[in-house]
Structures are given as C-alpha cells and as structure tokens.
Specification:
single chain, alpha/beta, nine-stranded mixed sheet, 23% strand, LRR_dom_sf
C-alpha cells in the first residue's frame, strides 16, 4: 500500500509505539511516501488496517493526498486482496481524509453505493477514484451512484478518471445512468475493470479486461506502435490490418 501526504512535521505522538510498523510515520517531505509495509504483491487490506490509519492524529489524516492499494497477485499462495473491506470502513475513511486527490482500491468484493457516495460528498479534490473487484468477485454498485453525481455537480468537480467493476446484474439501468452522467462531465473517463485468472506454468496469473466511456460513448484510447504490439501481439501486426498509431 502506498500513502502520500502533504508536508507534515512529525510529533512524538506520530511515532508512538502503538502505531504498527506497517503504518509507521517517518519525517515526511512534500509529496513523498512516508508509510511502508509489505510489498503490494503480498499485502492484505482489512477494516482493522483502515481503523489503525484513522487512529492517527486528525491532522495527519487531513494531510493524506493519495491512497493506493493494488491487487497484483492471484498465484496459489497469494495473500493480496481487499475482499473483506466494507462500505462502513470506507465511509469513515472518506470523512476523515477530505483532501484526498487519488484513491485507488483494488481487489475488493461486495462494496455498494455507500462507498462511492461517501467519496463524492466528502472528498471534493479527487481527480482519480478506483473501486474495483478481485478476480471472480463483483461489487454492488447501482445506477444510484451515477444519478447522485449527476444531481450534485459540485461533488468532485475535478474528477478525471473513475474506475469500477460493473455489476452485470444491474448493467441495463446502471449503464444508462453512467452514460448520462458521462455526457454531463465531458472531461471524465470512466473505465470498467474486470479481473480474471488463467493458469500458466503450473500457477495462476492475472488478466485484466477494461472497457471505457467518455462523453456518453465508448472510448478507445489511441495507441503508440509499441503499445499496440504489447496489447495485441506482433503476430497480428504481421497479418496486415490497419491501425492509426500515435
């Protein structure tokens, strides 16, 4: 997990022995990471972890600019996910950290509209928001999340990127509300992220599938020649076909 804070002058309270090693605060300079722990590929995030973060002095939480938890490892012995993190914990986090500009939480399961609404209402400076699910899991987001954002143009006016995992059971009304809101916020890029696994060399590897929308329409980013090779493979380039490279 990576946390970035604005300039904060540590006090003895910030280095109290009751603060666990994974959340130990060192002298923090502007926009530098002062919090550490396990590598992301082995990290597990739970409600108690978030509760520990919120036990820090309120001025530290208020200085938090970026929260990034990545889900990278689906191998047989992996311990890397945020499946047990709840809406209630994220609501408390959003209220305590109003100056967040980036919030990335991957590998979740079963989150609902409450999480989105909390960040919408309490974190007006967000430019990047991600709440995506673990492999084989989904969240419970509904059209309500987008209707609320459409009805409150003052919520997160700087938001540029929104990543989520679409609940296929609610795809119809969800998609209609998402496209309508996307038209109202032409600078916003919305991306649906689905995670799957495939077996390779005797173990499991992660595969991600993304679909994006902007201005109410499907959005396909322009690729460089090197990016196209990476995504589609050299063999498809050799078959002919046409692509407008940047």
């Amino acid at each position: 997990m990576r946390l970035i804070l604005a300039a904060v002058t540590p006090t003895p309270e910030d280095t109290h022995p009751t603060v666990p090693d994974w959340l130990r605060i060192a002298p923090i300079s502007r926009e530098s990471s002062g919090l550490g722990g396990k590598s992301n590929s082995q990290a597990l995030l739970t409600d108690p972890h978030l509760a520990t973060l919120l036990q820090l002095p309120s001025r530290v939480c208020a200085a938090l600019k970026s929260f990034e938890f990545t889900y990278q490892d689906v191998s047989r012995d992996a311990t890397n996910d945020a499946k047990t993190v709840t809406d209630a914990a994220l609501v408390r986090l959003a209220r305590a950290c109003p100056n967040l500009t980036t919030f990335m939480l991957q590998g979740t399961s079963g989150l609902g509209d409450e999480s989105f609404l909390a960040f919408y209402e309490h974190c007006p400076n967000l430019t990047f928001l991600e709440l995506t699910a673990a492999s084989g899991d989904h969240n419970r987001f509904s059209s309500r999340a987008f209707e609320a954002l459409s009805g409150n143009p003052g919520w997160m006016p700087r938001l540029k990127k929104l990543l989520l995992t679409i609940n296929m059971c609610a795809k119809g009304p969800f998609m209609n509300a998402m496209k309508a809101m996307s038209k109202e916020r032409p600078a916003l890029l919305i991306t649906s992220v689905t995670v799957d696994e495939r077996k390779k060399w005797g173990d499991w590897e992660m595969e991600k599938y993304e679909e994006s929308w902007k201005k109410g329409r499907t959005f396909v980013p322009r690729l460089t020649y090197e990016e196209y090779q990476e995504v589609f493979g050299r063999s498809r380039l050799m078959m002919g076909g046409f692509h407008d490279f940047d």
